[in-house]
């Protein structure tokens, strides 16, 4: 969910709870429960529309955006480390299928 909201924010798009459920292949009631949890944890914000259940706008909070940036940085560093050490750890690049 957080990654979907991050991409939407980069594209300057609004996402509803229903759209977020669909984008994450999650049943809407389950998605709304997770949205509640993530909102409680301060990772996202929601603009409630009482007349349209499931259609409130959802976006990353500042804390949520920072968490995604940190995750992306961790992934970049992990990929770099893996590429730097893979030859030694995998036997010098030999093909073990033979």
Q: What does this protein look like?
A:
InterPro entries: WH-like_DNA-bd_sf, WH_DNA-bd_sf. This is Helix-turn-helix domain-containing protein. It comes from Sphingomonas sediminicola. The chain has a single domain (2-86), classed as Orthogonal Bundle (Arc Repressor Mutant, subunit A). The termini are far apart. The radius of gyration is 19 Å and the shape is elongated. Helix 2 (17-23) crosses helix 3 (28-40). With 98 residues, it is mostly helical. Strands 1-3-2 form a three-stranded antiparallel beta sheet. The model is unreliable at 94-98 (pLDDT under 50). The protein has four helices and three strands. It is 58% helix and 10% strand.
User: Unreliable stretches, pLDDT < 50, 5 or more residues?
Assistant: 94-98
- Neighbour order of strands in the largest sheet: 1-3-2
CATH superfamily: Winged helix-like DNA-binding domain superfamily/Winged helix DNA-binding domain
Instruction: Note the beta-strand portion.
Output: 5-15%
Distance between the termini: 42 Å
> Radius of gyration, Cα only, in angstroms?
19 Å
CATH architecture descriptor text: Orthogonal Bundle
Helix content: 55-70%
Overall structural class, as computed from helix and strand content, comes to mainly alpha
Q: Provide a count of the helices.
A: 4
- Nearest-integer average pLDDT: 82
The CATH class label is Mainly Alpha
The count of β-strands is 3
Largest sheet properties: 3 strands, antiparallel
Overall number of domains: 1
Question: Looking at CATH, which topology would you report?
Answer: Arc Repressor Mutant, subunit A
InterPro entries: WH-like_DNA-bd_sf, WH_DNA-bd_sf
Protein name: Helix-turn-helix domain-containing protein
Organism: Sphingomonas sediminicola
């Amino acid at each position: 969910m957080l990654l979907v909201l991050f991409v939407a924010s980069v594209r300057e798009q609004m996402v509803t709870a229903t759209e977020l459920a669909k984008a994450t292949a999650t049943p809407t009631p389950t998605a709304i429960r997770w949205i509640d949890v993530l909102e409680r944890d301060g990772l996202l914000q929601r603009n409630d529309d009482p007349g349209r259940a499931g259609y409130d706008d959802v976006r990353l909070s500042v804390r949520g955006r920072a968490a995604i940036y940190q995750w992306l940085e961790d992934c970049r560093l992990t990929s770099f480390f893996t590429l730097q050490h893979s030859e030694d750890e995998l036997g010098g690049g030999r093909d073990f299928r033979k």
